[in-house]
Amino acid sequence: MADTGVGGVPGVAQAADRGPRADRHDTDRDLLRRIEAELAAYLDRRRAEAAEIDPAFAAATEALRGFVLGGGKRIRPTFAWWGWRGAGGDPDDEITPAVLRALSALELIQACALVHDDLIDASATRRGRPTVHVAFADRHADAGWAGRPARFGAAAAILLGDLALAWADDMLRDAGLPAAALRRAAEPWRSMRTELLAGQYLDVLGQASADTSTHGALRINRFKTAAYTVERPLHLGAAIADAAPALVRSYRRFGADIGVAFQLRDDLLDVFGDPAVTGKAAGDDLREGKRTLLVALALERAEERGATAARTVLTDALGDRHLDAAAVERIRDVLCELGAAQAVEQRIAALAGAALDALTTADIAEPAASRLAELAVTATRRRS
């Protein structure tokens, strides 16, 4: 029988009310504790409401709570916070608790995206634990319920992802922001949700249509990751602070470049990263058939050089669910031989440089300007 996690759901580990991870920047330690506290308090309230509906539904929401609080770097609310600070937000202002609650809602958008993405990609693990659809499928199998465990797991993941999205909207709306600030926040919030779903669809479409173009890969990165990871969180913080249009434009340029660089680092870590650090099996993107920029550049170079054998290694690997460690190692060699890995590293460096240039031309209050520059480096040089 699988180990039981939160609410009787196997594999979904219970989140302790703990402090920030040890590798987080000292400047943000207090911020991250406050974000965790806001999320925990909000999810506890919603779980109590769920219990009034049915204990089984409360157990499911407890699994969502465990997923949200059980890990993650809180990148999105952190960028949003410094976007607000850089636009003149005062941490000692009476509205600061409301701002923190509003920005913390970004983590529920992230939870929705991850739960659904794991289901779409048929990923088995997330943060070193079973993904939500796998955990609920295990629960079904252990209980001996009727029907197929995988179908139940998929249904539960869809519904919990939808619930996270609904609660994100609720958390933002009920955060206690002044009415004018809430109205300003609506534009980046609305755009972010649509862009995220557009990026998800383009990703699925790219896999189905076998699009291996660099343009297609970058388009997916722009909307699936960059927009809701950095660009729109910065825009959200700026909108709450009533920033000038020029600052919003600079934030968005910075955020788009850093967001794409963040995803490119993710692509490299998927193939070259240490699973003990990343929490995911090496080569998952290949098994899922993802047409990342790394793969697109490798195939492009193999075509230019007439490297038929290298191209075959890559095309055979895409979508191969049974890809083993030895095959992943061979693909690493091919990616390096073709210079694709180095090309992605160079693209990351170029994007980070362009993003930092956007910061230097903007009127951003300190210490936000310095902290955003540091976050840019952290986001693009990380190991997990």
TrEMBL record:
Q: List required co-factors.
A: Mg(2+)
One of the entry's Gene Ontology molecular-function terms is: prenyltransferase activity
UniProt-listed GO biological process terms: isoprenoid biosynthetic process
* InterPro entries hit by this protein: Isoprenoid_synthase_dom_sf (IPR008949), Polyprenyl_synt (IPR000092), Polyprenyl_synt_CS (IPR033749)
Annotated coiled-coil positions are none
Q: Where is the composition biased (Basic and acidic residues)?
A: 18-27
Give the SUPFAM superfamilies listed for this entry. Terpenoid synthases
Q: Provide the protein name.
A: Geranylgeranyl pyrophosphate synthase
> Which organism was this protein described from?
Pseudonocardia asaccharolytica DSM 44247 = NBRC 16224
The major lineage groups are: Bacteria, Bacillati, Actinomycetota, Actinomycetes, Pseudonocardiales
